Predict the 3D structure of the following.
Amino acid sequence: SQQGEEDPQALSIQEGENATMNCSYKTSINNLQWYRQNSGRGLVHLILIRSNEREKHSGRLRVTLDTSKKSSSLLITASRAADTASYFCATGLTGGGNKLTFGTGTQLKVEL
Amino acid sequence: DTAVSQTPKYLVTQMGNDKSIKCEQNLGHDTMYWYKQDSKKFLKIMFSYNNKELIINETVPNRFSPKSPDKAHLNLHINSLELGDSAVYFCASSQLSRGNEQYFGPGTRLTVT
């Protein structure tokens, strides 16, 4: 079964609001990554958090990781219309080499 | 100066045909991947090559055969295409020694009729 499940499946907010997406996984991981996919395009890497880290920031992005709950969250602050995209979490498994297993994705729509 | 490129971008073909998708990366990465994304946007890894050696081979029909002539190229050949092969295929690359952030190509939308 799939490693990552994301919640919510879809999220619609107004520009300027914060957007929070959650990702849950099932097995031990080495790292967790978040990617963005604009419609009709390839995925773009946003941020990587290692299993021994709890929080990481990159610009308007904040990622948390709770390995005891096997979950992660991605917070986008002060959202913009250009943030409209699908967001995927991907887990690198312990002992899994370079394999990433992607979640189901959250479709974010930021309205003006 | 495209990092990961794929050709073609769109591919429409009939059942039973054989087709190839090409991928090239100019990032100097040592590892390349093929993913399949279905109509529900579920992304699943198919293959991975590290320095031209196959290191990940998921449960994929034998009709799919990857080929890596060198570190910068990873092609995907598909024999006897079926309706269920319709999807978007993404190539990606990474440099394992610098973590496993993957860089994706723009995708190839394959439609089998």
In short: The interface with chain A takes residues 4, 31, 41-45, 48, 50, 55-56, 90, 92, 94, 96, 99-107 of chain B (CB under 8 Å). The radius of gyration of chain B is 13 Å. The mean pLDDT of chain B is 93.
